[in-house]
Amino acid sequence: MLKSINFRRNMNLKLLINLFSLLSLMVLETKAQKTESLIQNIFTTQTHKIRSINYNDTDYSDLRTLQNVIGSARVIMLGEQDHGDAATFQAKTRLVKFLHKECGFEVLAFESDFYSINSINFTTQEIIPNIKSLYGRRNIYPTWTECKQNEDLFEYLAQNYNGISPLKITGFDCRHTGGYAKDNYVRQLDSIIKTSNLPFRNSLFYADFIQILTDLINKEYRSKVSASNQFKFIQCVDTLIVQRNQLNRNLNDFWNQELKNLKIFAQNSWQYKELLNGYSSNIRDEQMSDNLLWLLNFQYPGKKVIVWSHNFHISNNINQTSANKKRQMVTMGGLMKEKMGDSLYILGFDSYQGFAGSLGSKTFKIKSPSKESIEYYINQNNFDFAFINLVDKSIDKNVDYKMKAFLHKEINGKWLKVFDGIFYIKNMYPCNYNSPN
Predict the structure, then answer these.
(1) 339-372: pLDDT as tens digits
(2) Cα 93 to Cα 391: distance, rounded to the nearest angstrom
(3) What is the pTM for the complete model shown?
(4) What are phi and psi of 277, to 5 degrees?
(5) What phi and psi values does residue 338 have, to the nearest 5 degrees?
(6) What is the DSSP letter of 281?
């Protein structure tokens, strides 16, 4: 009798467990269906066809939605998945032309050498310069100057360098890669220290400082300096910053900003392996943000600025993705968004399929996106090119997706919080090398 009762109890318990499991599964399936329906709705209602990425296509009716969404934003950041995505470069070139001609943007800021590009701007007297010659030699990074598919961009920049409505060129990266820096930096800083009669010129370490600076400027990541001399060098730069500020307290002084830039360049060069977060270093992105803010406030006050950079650097809320699970990351876009709010618009670039590879590296086939990816849902619209508006207040941005935003590799995250919009390209192809001469 007792065994029979226990048996019935066990059977009832099993039935309850099975029933509970079934109900839970039904709830999960219903939730998943609702989530998928929500996702499909976002990438249907907020996806707008872009007709072309052809520079010569000046019928901008397909870009008017983007123009309306950007609104009165002072800065727009244009990203790229990798520094060799030719189709993206062509799309960005058409956008640059559109933003300049139709939306009143007056400055194009490259993720390139802050010191070199701005020093060139201070010294050049050319009316219509050979842009690739003037800003080449790694002043603007060769991934852009030596990409054949980017010829239209530099031709447009040359045509609009001066005139009634010029499009000015600048750079904001702390790296001193440019040929101009290699030719002039050490001599120029040495001259400034001496002509300004800064007390540091009398330091017993001054000759060593100049020697280390020469090695650093010429070798960057390959610079081999002892840890003790690295420490002394950074201390010397801090001393120069203080002495220079005492001499000239103007925040708009270029060399006050450049000395801060030099300090981060040195730290990023010597400690790169320790600082690398997978894509960049936090201090580099912090300095890029600081340089860009300086340019906005002092070099181009009131001007509307286009930023040309990598998706990673322009991203916001990067730590709401799984891009790096081991450490917190800082991005230029996130820092700038905190400062500028809606005055900054961040446009990420994405692609569905094709081939990629940074200039000079091996080309690879892009893997097909999974069914949980943003690319999969956008592709349902069957567009070759599209703009996806992500600032609509009706969008639930707390949904996780996969996206190939960085180096064409799928990463999970709340991507609708990372970009304000996405420019979608169905078929990606890499750059062809174009000689800088």
Answers:
(1) 999 999 999 999 999 999 998 889 999 999 999 8
(2) 23
(3) 0.91
(4) -105, 15
(5) -60, -35
(6) B
